[in-house]
Amino acid sequence: MKRLVDHSEVIQHMNGRLVKNNIFKLLFFFATVFGLIILVVLLYRVFTQATGWLNIDFLQNFPSRIPERAGIKAALVGSIWLMAMVAPLSLFLGVGTAIYLEEYAKKSRFTDFIQTNISNLAGVPSIVFGLLGLTVFARGMELGRSVLAAGLTMSLLVLPVIVVASQEALRAVPNQLREASYGMGATKWQTIYRVVLPAAVPGILTGSILALSRAIGETAPLIVLGIPTFIAYLPKSVFDTFTVMPMQIYNWTGRPQEEFQHVAAAGIVVLLVLLVMLNSIAIWIRNKFQKRF
Amino acid sequence: MKNWKVVALSTMFSGVLAFTTACGGNATNEGEKNGSSQQLQGDVKMDGSSTVFPIMEATAEEYMAEQPGVKVSVGVSGTGGGFEKFTKGETDFSNASRPIKDEEKQAAQKNGIEYQEFKIAYDGLSVVVNKENTWVDHLTVDELKKIWTSGAVSGNDKVKWSDIRKGWPDEEIKLFSPGHDSGTFDYFDEVILNKQPINKNAQLSEDDNVLVKGVEGDKNAIGYFGFAYYVENKNKLKVVPIDGGNGPVEPTHETIRSGEYKPLSRPLFTYVNLKSLKEKPQVYDFAKYILENGAKFSEDVGYVALPKDEYTQQLKTLEGLKK
To answer: Could you tell me which residue ranges the PBP domain spans (chain B) (predicted)?
Structure first.
């Protein structure tokens, strides 16, 4: 008589399955480690090159032809100005668009059309946004090579990513929450502001962190706009010229003198620290909201 | 919840504001300490070639120590990108590693932009091979053409040393060249390639340090780039004397300045907008400063200064333009 569960057969199969399980586990482990190793190598290289060059003077000096005197002050302050401009602007526009599309607009051909275009825009090369910024902001609105022109261009560049991420986050908010809010007599705006948005903030911020990190590391659109690399003064208003860290770092890496490679490495460390700082602020805000649900 | 949002956002922005204003304050204080005879105000906008950039960075750095009221900014849009903005009247100076092209002249004319060209320094494109390369003692211009032009030796662009001169090893040459966007490539394209396509197997890079590494790492490699990159890597590379018709000449400060190193030595320029020159005293002053100190700063950053009287002559031209 054949038994329903043949023990010996199960054991035989089991071995194969366990091996398969282990193979996949190893494979995914290596996938994780691969990225980590590259990151560690990169950080190790940058930090060893930067030691001895990264000091207070480096943060307080303007660029110079003499490597020992070169500093990142103008670029660091410029990057912060740019972020102070891009972050609120792109968040307002991006989240606004997402709320309209998800909460207010009815599904129609028109919204489908907008949707497709936003997704496509996320894949447009950054240099195209630079050309757009040059024609519309720098020349059309005569903003020139100012913080304002660059900030508007960069906001456009990261906008699609923020819109798409915010839409996903809004969509993930359970409908029961909205229904309950309406049931209590809340209006649409009250529901969005008090119920939907707080629940969606963690998701929105995750997407925005990625988008803003991109904006801080981008150079191509700024080069097209004609943002200078050498500047030895700080912007006083949004109409002043400025420079940003990635442009300064790129310029240093291309120099013939070997010392400038160290200066560039020190610049990269400063850029990384700024990125980590901005990201941790966003993550901190995100965690505060996450605790509520 | 609401409180958190307000607190978090306001700390973030006040932090940013505090930092930027604090830094802004420092700059003005530093500025006021410096005082010399005639203090000028206003900005000087400069853009263009990344090859010329180090000279102008040095000039601007020293100039602003004397004239803290003048804000000089220097961009690196490339020679072509710089002229695109210059011919629209958006910049006061445009740096170039080649003379202005006809199309660019027409664009300037169309927009009513008048300009003057000034020579700042010389650069000698240096052809280099690997340190272990014992056979190459010099190359003629024709041999360079044979190595670099596409299809000059064979259809698949594989060139061996033995194809170039008898007795050289039967091994394939690895080529390293600056990318198409650089003025260095433009110049090589004109004098060596004669506008013919470059060898398809050549490895192109916009970063000259990558070319240095490439030639350093391969026994059969050959490459070319600006003189400054050769000088900085002298002990890692072997420079090839070039025979332009009058015997092999090695690129040195002397041979480049005298023009003996032919045809690969090239002048570096800056173009100034005449309207800015007349209307903005700081532009005139800065132009004068460039010509007065160009020799020193060019040498400082690895280029070759012009003979002295060329600067004096150009200073006279500049004075004439002001009237």
So the answer is: 37-291
A233 vs B: CB within 8 A: yes
Domain range for A13: 2-50
Mind listing the pLDDT tens digit for each residue in A192-211?
A: 999 999 889 888 988 888 88
The domain made up of B4-122+267-321 has a fold known as D-Maltodextrin-Binding Protein; domain 2 (3.40.190)
Portion of chain B with pLDDT greater than 90, in percent: 28
Q: Do A256 and B232 touch (CB under 8 A)?
A: yes
Same domain for A252 and A134: yes
Residues 6+ apart with CB under 8 A from A219: A244, A246, A247, A250
Other residues' Cβ atoms within 10 Å of the Cβ of residue B225: 31
**Would you place residue B30 in the very low, low, confident or very high pLDDT band (cuts 50, 70, 90)?**
very low
Q: Which of A255, A260, A291, A293 to mutate to test the interface with B (most CBs of B within 10 A)?
A: A255
Determine, for residues A145 and B45 on separate chains, whether the beta-carbon distance falls below 8 Å: yes
Kindly tell me if the per-residue pLDDT of A90 is higher than 60. Answer: yes
Same domain, A214 and A278: yes
Question: Is the reported ipTM for this assembly greater than 0.90?
Answer: no
Nearest CA in chain A to B9: A285
Instruction: State which amino acid sits at residue B261.
Output: Y
Nearest to A232 among B8, B56, B60 (CB): B60
Model confidence pLDDT, tens digit, residues A163-183? 999 999 999 999 999 999 999
Q: Is A145 touching B (CB cutoff 8 A)?
A: yes
- Whether A228 has its CB under 8 Å from any CB of chain B: the answer is yes
Q: Residue B3's pLDDT band (boundaries 50, 70, 90)?
A: low
* B133 phi and psi angles, rounded to 5 deg: -75, 110
Distance from chain centroid for Cα A186? 35
A229 touches chain B (CB under 8 A): yes
Q: Are residues A33 and A107 both part of a single domain?
A: no
Q: Does domain B126-263 have CATH number 2.60.40.3250?
A: no
Q: Which residues make up the CATH 3.40.190.10 domain(s) of chain B?
A: 4-122+267-321, 126-263
pLDDT reported for residue B22: 46
Pairing relationship of beta strands B126-130 and B237-239 according to DSSP bridges: antiparallel
